[in-house]
């Protein structure tokens, strides 16, 4: 008769540490947005609605990560390559620097194209397709469905 072996699973100090950092971040951002921005309602969202909701979701996801056990024999964390780290951390800067002057379409396309090369497996074709697809999605959601007052084309493009 075969005896089933059970994999030993335990809470990870790494997961708990990262979760504590993200819970702290979500609390600080949530409180700041709640106290400084108009929240509004789900039907008429204010500027603070999305940051507050996002911080709540981040907090709950972080707590879920804290209590997710890591299987025995799991690979240890490794540092990301410097190139990938720079591209991912620089992407919000690319978006922020280009949204006003280029507009939503070009800013999203440029940001996604830029950040896609953080993957060592990215090809030019895949990056272009990802940029186009995500740009169409963002324009549809933010401009047409949510009617956010974001110009599709910026000052440089429209003249």
Automatic annotation (TrEMBL):
Signal peptide residue numbers: none
Record's keyword annotation contains Ribosomal protein: no
Membrane-spanning intervals of the chain: 16-34, 46-67, 87-115, 127-146
Entry keyword annotation includes Transmembrane helix: yes
Domain DUF1468: 18-149
Keywords: Membrane, Plasmid, Transmembrane, Transmembrane helix
Pfam families (alphabetical): TctB (PF07331)
Top-level lineage group: Bacteria
Protein name as it appears in the record: Tripartite tricarboxylate transporter TctB family
Organism of this sequence: Neorhizobium galegae bv. orientalis str. HAMBI 540
Lineage of the organism: Bacteria, Pseudomonadati, Pseudomonadota, Alphaproteobacteria, Hyphomicrobiales
